């Protein structure tokens, strides 16, 4: 099964190259994979923890895996971003799937750190580990209270239970959000949906979940690879192969381009891989040694976004500060976190700049609830602008029109987004 997952990942990358470029829209929620910076800064994220079981194999005198990772991070003065779960003990009845498959920890649901050992993982059961993460200056993000996928994922998780609706997804993430607020006084600002499943069956997506909670969508641009098991039968050889798979791609990337990791987010796992080993416990040190050798500083995703919140705009641009202010309550970047300042601005995009967020979101959500189908991201903002007389009746929701008959408010044909943002009065 692990081979199937690997082949699937390669196939997905190939299809992405062959198909036309995915269309993106202005969005209050952006998928943060990396940011633009010339500084040698990068971030590391650790999913599915905390984990209060030893590394496997245990070569750390029984210390819990999360402690081992924190020890290594502290040694290199590095800060991690821990994408935590709440508690998977409610995910029963269930049974373990085949070791080495994606269902190793549960056929119907995920169980962390392992099936039958749910009380050794998640923030509900790991108070000491949560406090250590926070006390040592690391970031915590929301990976779902029960780590249930938002919608169907038939290729890998055909038998998995899923939430299926925006309300259930919001409730699940909000339960974890409230727990961190109430017990630790900690406010999370980002989420990574379980297994990156975005589309739900009620017409909403994970971006709508983020909009409701005021989160950004935390993704990653580089796979640390510790979650994928080796197919070698000898356990020691398999572990070494898994560690090498974490380190060698990083080494080759840096040898080819020493600035390769500037602004990147590296994906890791705070838990077992599909073979119930933890190569991250052994590979993390070697990764950090490499990054240190090339002069990198590993910071939290929040710190990385302070350097720049955008994927294609840095502090050297004269509009940088203005757009940083605007993005607090206006949709000024696309869902892939690119601003695309030098492209023509459409009327739909102008509507997203002019309409209050509450109006744009509320009207679009009402449309989806009424029809049960996905609605164009700009439909709510355009409806509000038409009501205010800023756009004529009948303006299309797809925002594809770059010019309308004279006398209507909006950018003349050919005006770029840079032109409009430069002229916009805050």
General description of the model:
37% of the residues lie in helices and 8% in strands. The chain has 426 residues and is of the alpha/beta class. Strands 2, 3, 4, 7, 8 and 9 form a six-stranded parallel β-sheet that branches. Strands 1-6-5 form a three-stranded parallel β-sheet, covered by helices on one side. Strand 7, helix 7 (235-256) and strand 8 form a beta-alpha-beta unit. Helix 7 (235-256) runs parallel beside helix 8 (280-293) and helix 12 (357-371) packs across helix 13 (379-387).
Q: What's the N-to-C terminus distance?
A: 53 Å
Return the structural class.
alpha/beta
Instruction: Specify the CATH homologous superfamily of the largest domain.
Output: Glycoside hydrolase/deacetylase
> How many beta strands in the DSSP annotation?
9
Largest sheet report: 6 strands, parallel
- Assigned CATH architecture of the largest domain: Alpha-Beta Barrel
Q: Roughly how many Å is the radius of gyration?
A: 22 Å
């Amino acid at each position: 099964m692990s081979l199937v997952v690997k082949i699937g990942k390669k196939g997905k990358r190939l299809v992405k190259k062959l198909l036309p470029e995915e269309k993106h829209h202005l969005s209050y929620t952006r998928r943060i994979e990396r940011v633009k910076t010339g500084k040698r800064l990068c971030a590391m994220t650790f999913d599915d923890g905390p984990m209060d079981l030893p590394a496997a194999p245990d070569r750390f005198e029984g210390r819990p895996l999360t402690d081992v990772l924190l020890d290594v991070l502290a040694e290199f003065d590095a800060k991690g971003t821990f994408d935590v779960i709440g508690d998977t003990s409610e995910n029963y009845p269930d049974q373990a799937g085949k070791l080495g498959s994606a269902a190793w920890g549960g056929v119907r649901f995920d169980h962390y750190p392992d099936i039958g050992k749910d009380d050794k993982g998640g923030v509900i059961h790991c108070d000491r580990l949560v406090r250590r993460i926070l006390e040592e200056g690391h970031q915590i993000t929301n990976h779902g209270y029960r780590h249930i996928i938002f919608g169907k994922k038939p290729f890998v998780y055909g038998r998995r239970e899923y939430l299926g609706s925006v309300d259930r997804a919001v409730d699940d993430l909000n339960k974890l959000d409230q727990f961190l607020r109430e017990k630790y006084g900690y406010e999370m600002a980002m989420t990574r949906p379980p297994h990156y499943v975005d589309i739900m069956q009620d017409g909403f997506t994970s971006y709508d979940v983020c909009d409701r909670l005021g989160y950004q969508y935390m993704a990653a641009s580089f796979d640390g690879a510790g979650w994928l098991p080796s197919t070698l039968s000898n356990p020691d050889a398999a572990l070494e192969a898994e560690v090498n798979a974490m380190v060698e791609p990083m080494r080759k990337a840096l040898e080819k381009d020493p600035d390769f990791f500037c602004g990147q987010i590296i994906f890791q796992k705070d838990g077992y891989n599909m073979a119930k080993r933890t190569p991250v416990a052994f590979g993390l040190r070697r990764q950090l040694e490499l990054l240190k050798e090339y002069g990198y500083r590993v910071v939290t995703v929040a710190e990385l976004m302070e350097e720049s919140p955008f994927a294609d705009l840095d502090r050297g641009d004269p509009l940088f500060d203005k757009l940083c202010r605007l993005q607090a309550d206006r949709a000024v970047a696309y869902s892939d976190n690119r601003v695309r300042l030098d492209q023509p601005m459409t009327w739909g995009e102008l509507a997203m700049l002019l309409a209050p967020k509450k109006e744009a979101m509320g009207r679009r959500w009402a449309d989806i609830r009424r029809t049960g189908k996905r609605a164009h991201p700009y439909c709510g903002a355009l409806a509000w602008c038409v009501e205010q007389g800023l756009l004529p009746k009948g303006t299309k929701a797809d925002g594809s029109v770059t010019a309308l008959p004279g006398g209507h408010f909006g950018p003349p044909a050919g005006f770029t987004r840079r032109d409009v943002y430069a002229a916009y009065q805050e």
